[in-house]
Amino acid sequence: MRFLLTEEQRAFARSLDALLAAADTPSLVRSWSAGDTTAGRALWSRIAEAGVFALAVPEEFEGVGPLPVELGVAFVELGRHAVPGPLVETVLAAALLSGRPEPAGRLLPQLASGKALATVGAPYALDADTADLVLALRDGQVWRAPGARNIRPSLDPARRLATPLPGGELLSPVIPPEAVLWARLATAAQALGVGLALLDRTVAHVGQRVQFGVPTGSFQAVKHRLADARTALEFARPLLFGAALSMTPADVAAAKVAACEAAYATARTALQLHGAIGYTAEYDLSLWLTKARALRTAWGGPAECRAVVLGAPR
Amino acid sequence: MDLTHSPADEAFRAEARAWLASHVPAAPLPSLETEEGFAAHRTWEAELAADRWSVVSWPAEYGGRDAGLMRWLIFEEEYYAARAPGRVSQNGIHLLAPTLFDHGTEEQRSRVLPPMARGEVVWAQAWSEPEAGSDLASLRSRAVRTDGGWCLSGQKTWSSRAAFADRAFGLFRSEPEAPRHQGLIYLMFDLRAPGVTVRPIHRLDGKPAFAELFLDEVFVPDEDVIGEPGEGWRIAMSTAGNERGLTLRSPGRYLAAADRLVELWRERGCPVRVQDRVADAVIGARAYQLFTYAGASRFLQGEPLGPESSMNKVFWSEYDIALHETALDLLGEEGELADTDWAEGYVFSLAGPLYAGANEIQRDIIAERLLGLPKGRR
Ligand SMILES: Cc1cc2nc3c(=O)[nH]c(=O)nc-3n(C[C@H](O)[C@H](O)[C@H](O)COP(=O)(O)OP(=O)(O)OC[C@H]3O[C@@H](n4cnc5c(N)ncnc54)[C@H](O)[C@@H]3O)c2cc1C
């Protein structure tokens, strides 16, 4: 029993952090939102080179996984830096196909290497206009859709949602039930990262913003909201890694609830404590604020996950 | 990252489980906040101690098993899962004992700890005063130097279980001219010594769960002073983290409580209206357990508990109330009945955000020491 990340795992987090910090993600997110995915795709390749997508792909298909703990470590960093794109969906696609030598042998190496972005519609497919592989979950089967239509904006401007087109190629006659665990785990980790970034930025802001002659961060009402945010996030973190170790439906669902609720509560706090500047699209905080809300309902909303925790019917 | 216990630790768990299964009283003991219940709990402490289960983490020479932190956590999981009685000795075991391990003399340890482990001497904490609550350093009770010891005068309050306890440990002002945090002395005294008057205070449900202490020239021999006179604040604070941090509330208690809540929810037909809150109780207990394992792992590799303890305190105290409120809501009109475990637990939970350092003070610590926010006006 030693419930701590290893030195290698922490070094992996630090190196991803450095890579993403150097990429100026805020401006890249803005161009992604505006429909120009060039910079985003370039970053995607570097993230793949760092080995992130390979973590979800078995070795036989040119991956290094599956390694859920490392995947959790990586997705916390992706969330902290507000990296856009169908990150979780690419992991899910890998999990959906891993058990089937064909098409896995054909498709997974591309996902692991970052050459292809995958998305999965259930019902909406994130960033289907950019993704190279659009999967649709229909009638208990996994299909490769010939594309998607009816693109709609998300509450998070960096996300676009579309409906996969009918027809296409049948990739798997069953939806492996454990595949959704990977999507949930990655979403929980990403949400935790989003929450941590919101907290850091807000702490920095209230340390500088002066009102009534003192930093707003010296007011107790302000401090206490941030103390609560920190506490909620720090109690979500061990659930995330505990779930990565066990990968049971209840543990993963618990991690999803705790991380997403903590991130969302932190988003509310961050907006309030920034004042009006936080309510603007041009201020970078908005990139994380809107994502916290979107991730909360992606791949199993709070009520659905809580029902899983209790083993209750829905 | 690893959550599996070693075979030796699992063997320890099995041994504890077996012992508890054959010893935990079949019918719950009366509330330990009553005279009758207090006596029954003392007997239980003696039974635990007879087979060295009362203080598993202590060195064997004082009645423990040298079990270490992880096994203590395992023991507590088994203890609460077995629905064993609450611990009447908890203040002594969790607050005074760690202080004596760190700052006491060998003579004090061998005199004080074994009878504490056996429940023969039950200890009360005498820190708070009527004018010194959250602002503990403003305390005014005095210790005046006298032949062979110190002479205590003043008033202490909110002392848990002091109505029935034997001895107390507390902070007194020994140098009236020194700055607030200096000139304090930390010592132990007898609640039945001449000059001590104990007046029980009844909590919300009418039980005498704490007491006021009036001290009029109470003699304390030098051998009962902990550390150096004048150093009381530093000594008391060095172990106060124990109260908020690991030891006062082990995860086992909440894991067991969450299991009972799920049981109750199932018995009541799985009502959907409280489903989310029941799930949150399960999630919270697991989060607290894993947070503790992570903290213990860090502690065992030599890192101090630090201000993380304050997050612990805020988390468990609020969690405990939410869990009990959910249970009472599930019970509906029966939830009003006061003579149930749930009701007793509910009343007890309500005090959590107040004692062991009020939660507002803990949030200040989190904000200033973990987040680095500026100190403001208190
Ligand atoms: C059940 C129970 C058992 C107890 N057992 C013991 C015991 O065994 N031994 C012992 O010594 N004491 C004990 N206490 C006392 C406990 O330690 C005090 O209640 C606690 O320190 C708070 O002090 P107070 O009650 O005087 O409240 P106050 O200090 O008057 O505080 C009242 C409210 O004001 C808030 N407040 C105070 N200062 C600030 C600030 N700077 N910023 C924001 N808010 C503030 C507090 O958070 C609280 O909400 C016990 C209390 C309870 C309820």
Automatic annotation (TrEMBL), chain A:
Domain Acyl-CoA dehydrogenase/oxidase C-terminal: residue ranges: 181-304
All copies of domain Acyl-CoA dehydrogenase/oxidase N-terminal, residue ranges: 6-115
Alphabetic keyword roster: FAD, Flavoprotein, Oxidoreductase
Pfam family, one: Acyl-CoA_dh_N
Sequence similarity: Belongs to the acyl-CoA dehydrogenase family.
Matching PANTHER family: ACYL-COA DEHYDROGENASE, ACYL-COA DEHYDROGENASE FADE28
Protein name: Acyl-CoA/acyl-ACP dehydrogenase
Organism: Streptomyces cynarae
Automatic annotation (TrEMBL), chain B:
InterPro entries, per database record: Acyl-CoA_Oxase/DH_mid-dom, Acyl-CoA_Oxase/DH_mid-dom_sf, AcylCo_DH-like_C, AcylCo_DH/oxidase_C, AcylCoA_DH/ox_N, AcylCoA_DH/ox_N_sf, AcylCoA_DH/oxidase_NM_dom_sf, Mycobact_Acyl-CoA_DH
Every Acyl-CoA dehydrogenase/oxidase C-terminal domain range: 230-371
Residues in Acyl-CoA oxidase/dehydrogenase middle domain copies: 124-217
Family indicated by similarity: Belongs to the acyl-CoA dehydrogenase family.
Protein name in the entry: Acyl-CoA dehydrogenase family protein
Organism domain of life: Bacteria
PANTHER family: ACYL-COA DEHYDROGENASE (PTHR43292), ACYL-COA DEHYDROGENASE FADE29 (PTHR43292:SF3)
Cofactor: FAD
Segments forming domain Acyl-CoA dehydrogenase/oxidase N-terminal: 7-120
Protein's organism: Streptomyces cynarae
Alphabetically ordered keywords of this record: FAD, Flavoprotein, Oxidoreductase
